[in-house]
Amino acid sequence: MNNNIIAVLGAGNIGLSIAEGLSKSSNDKIIITRRKIDNISVLKNKNLIPEKNNKKAVLAASIVIIAVQPMQTKKLLNEIKDCIDIKKHIIISVVTGFGFNELQSVLGKEVAIFRAMPNIAISIQESMTCISSINASKKQVNLILSIFDKLGKSIIIDDELMNSATVLAACGVAFSLRFIRAASQGGIEIGFDANIAQQIAAQTIKGAASLLLADGLHPEKEIDKVTTPKGCTIAGLNEMEHNGFSSALIKGLKTSYNRISEIVEE
User: Fold this and answer.
1) pLDDT tens digits, the chain, 266 residues: what are they?
2) Taking Cα atoms as reference points, which of 171, 103, 175 lies closest to residue 132?
3) Both ends of the chain: CA-CA distance in Å?
4) 3 DSSP assignment
5) Which helix (H) or strand (E) holds 220?
6) In angstroms, rounded to a whole number, what is the distance separating the alpha carbons of residues 148 and 10?
7) What CA–CA distance (Å, rounded) separates 7 from 18?
8) What's the rounded Cα separation, in Å, for the pair 188 and 203?
9) Torsion sign (Cα): 263, 132, 252, 197
């Protein structure tokens, strides 16, 4: 397969994470744009090409990733729409709450468009990326999946679930990190110093997730393996549940989802 030229328009946290992940995982040529190009000059030593002109980046690329804030998206699309060739380009938007109707309406042409929701672990090739598409051929879908599979795991979902994917996969990183932080603080209380507590907590969570991904079992099946009668594990689990552990997490997910719905409607 020929190498791709990919333009990442926007060098914020997610844009930089995507660009860094792509530069580490493939031989594709990665162009990343930002108005103040000096702010990303540090990337010149990597497999990345900083560019301040969005149109120039789009004309050079075959795959264009829109990675700006929602309030900036319409302006950016209007800026580049005359450069889009439906036979050449694939558009990927990672913008929260900006749907296919809006994207296609501004671009004014039936180009292949994907919506992708990765998370910041994409910079180390460990993202969970949810993808939907419109006007895309099977070959194009497979191409985009192959790109994001190099950056972790990717799945195709119905577009109506994209807000849900944002909460579970993207916001979920923050929720998981907050759990590790709490576990680390608990580790300090029972005798470890901060650095060791964090290392133990983080690796333990990584191992727990790896078990599920490897075996495909329900979490309770793995939990049962370490909950002996009258043991310390079940005592701790029950105490957490009595204090609303699972309920708090579920409520947090639903609150984040409701907030995204509000943003989309505004």
Assistant:
1) 467 899 999 988 889 889 888 888 888 899 999 877 666 655 555 678 889 899 999 999 999 999 999 899 999 999 999 999 999 999 999 998 889 999 999 998 899 999 999 998 988 999 999 999 999 999 999 999 999 999 999 999 999 999 999 999 999 999 999 999 999 999 999 999 999 999 999 999 999 999 999 989 999 999 999 999 999 999 999 999 999 999 999 999 999 999 988 876 66
2) 103
3) 43
4) P
5) helix 219-224
6) 18
7) 11
8) 16
9) negative
Strands (DSSP E) found in the chain: 5-9, 29-33, 48-51, 63-66, 90-93, 112-117, 127-134, 152-156
DSSP state of 167: I
Pairing of strands 112-117, 127-134: antiparallel
Please compute Rg for the chain using Cα positions.
Answer: 21
Q: Do the beta carbons of residue 48 and residue 19 sit within 8 Å? A: yes
Fold of 5-157: Rossmann fold (3.40.50)
- Domain limits, the chain: 5-157, 166-265
Query: What's the Cα-to-Cα distance from 120 to each of 129, 161, 173, rounded to whole Å?
Result: 10, 20, 8
- Domain 166-265 in CATH 1.10.3730.10? The answer is yes
CA-nearest of 57, 67, 63, 60 to 16 is: 67
Task: Give counts: helices (H), strands (E), the chain.
Answer: 11, 8
* Amino acid (1-letter code) at residue 21: G
Q: Quote the CA–CA distance of 126 and 223 in Å, as a whole number.
A: 24
Q: Are 18 and 31 a contacting pair, CB within 8 Å?
A: no
> Rounded to whole angstroms, how far apart are CA atoms 43 and 116?
24
Strands (E), 124-241: 127-134, 152-156
